[in-house]
Every structure is written in C-alpha cells, then in structure tokens.
Amino acid sequence: MSETVAQFTLRRLEVPPLPPHITVEQARKLASALAHGDPERGRIVKESLRGKLHEFLAR
Question: Whole-model pTM above 0.85?
C-alpha cells in the first residue's frame, strides 16, 4: 500500500520536536524510555534527530 503525502505528513507530526535546550539528563531519560520497548522508537529517534539537524542547519 502506498502512503499519501497527507498520511506521511500527519505521521511525522505525531513526534513532537525535542526542546531547544534539552539537558543531558533529559536526553538520557528519553533514551532509556525508548530503549524499554516503545514500538515506535525507531521512528521517534529518526524524526527527533531530523528535527535537531534541521534546527542546526537553519542557523
């Protein structure tokens, strides 16, 4: 089944961006929570990193 642009966009919006000033402790707790079995962890990590990369490149 092919995914439409609208479905892809909505799926990407399900992952909130990381806070602009995330602390090491917050990042560690997020990683721990994801490591303990979130079924969407791969997508969450991918979208979070994509958002941070975009944030750095936009500077």
Answer: no
